[in-house]
Amino acid sequence: MTTITSVAEMQQWSLQHKSAGRRIAFVPTMGFLHEGHLSLLEAGRKNGDLLVLSIFVNPTQFGVGEDYADYPRDLAADGALAAQAGVDVIFVPSAAQMYPKDYATWVDVEGITEVLCGASRPGHFRGVTTVVSKLCNIVQPDIAFFGAKDFQQLAVIRRMVLDQNMPLEIVGMPIVREADGLALSSRNSYLSPEQRQQGLALSQSLALGRQLAAAGQRDSAIILAAVRAMIEVNPEARIDYLQICHQLSLQDQTQVDADSVLLLAVFLGKTRLIDNCFLLTE
Ligand code: AMP
């Protein structure tokens, strides 16, 4: 496994292997790797001749007052996990290389970025699409893997790749959870033991939503009220959003159908966690 920090070197490496006919699989991350990231790497290993992992805490997707400076980082541990996962190259560019002085170009997907996390975090998706587009220009993957934990991000990336005619396949991977249901996230490391306990309400309330739908409930308002009540009994939990949306348009649905996704973002103290599930399918 090689670590590459230079954009030019990464691009050169990819060009060389692509012209030799090799298929490059790519997993972009912000590091502090956990089993969720490892599931993407495992899929990447199976679907490419070469596997590239990027670790870049992208400043442009964090808003003012968000956790860019505090975001957990542990390159040594990430390196060991990546080696075990069969990664060929870890690409770790600096922010100065990715956004040099006078940097002025942004990729902005309209519409579906304006709801849910996009409404709560203005500019977030512009940062995400810009960096993913740049990383793809550098790594030149044939296939890239993203987690459904960031459901809206996956939809936005798919839209960008389609709209920009980017020559790669995007694969969405299922959410990996702790044994008790909490979706794995690098940000779980911020939680106090009490917040960690109260955080179980996220996955449990999604399960309640699915149960209600499975029992025939189709009225979104009724499902959302039950889910809300289950989260709000936890004193440290504050709902940022809680919505039932169509999986592609991400528009609110008043009636549940096979395309319905229940999405939530909840603060536990200062830590904002997201989770989602389909209500009827999957
Ligand atoms: P991040 O490092 O948080 O930016 O995440 C990098 C990639 O890992 C994204 O595609 C995420 O959706 C994915 N990911 C993060 N957490 C999970 C999880 N619990 N299960 C599956 N994929 C995940």
Summarize the structure.
The chain has 282 residues and is an alpha/beta fold. 38% of the residues lie in helices and 20% in strands.
Notes on the structure:
This protein has 282 residues and is of the alpha/beta class. It has 2 domains: 2-173, Rossmann fold; 186-276, Pantoate--beta-alanine Ligase, Chain: A,domain 2 (2-Layer Sandwich), CATH 3.30.1300. 38% of the residues lie in helices and 20% in strands. It is built from 10 helices and 9 strands. The chain has helices spanning 7-19, 35-47, 75-84, 95-98, 116-120, 124-139, 151-163, 193-198, 200-214, 220-232; strands at 2-4, 24-29, 50-55, 89-91, 143-147, 169-173, 237-246, 260-268, 271-278. The chain has a 6-stranded parallel sheet, with helices on both faces. Strands 7-8-9 form a 3-stranded antiparallel sheet. Strand 8 (260-268) and strand 9 form a beta hairpin. Helix 6 (124-139) crosses helix 7 (151-163) and helix 9 (200-214) packs antiparallel against helix 10. The longest helix is centred in the middle third of the chain and has 16 residues, at 124-139. It is globular and about 55 Å long. It starts with a strand and ends with a strand. 36% of the residues are buried. Bound molecules: adenosine monophosphate (AMP). The site of adenosine monophosphate (AMP) has 17 residues, from helix 2 and strand 5.
Give the CATH H-level superfamily of the largest domain.
HUPs
Order of helices and strands: EHEHEHEHHHEHEHHHEEE
Overall shape: globular
Oligomerization:
single chain
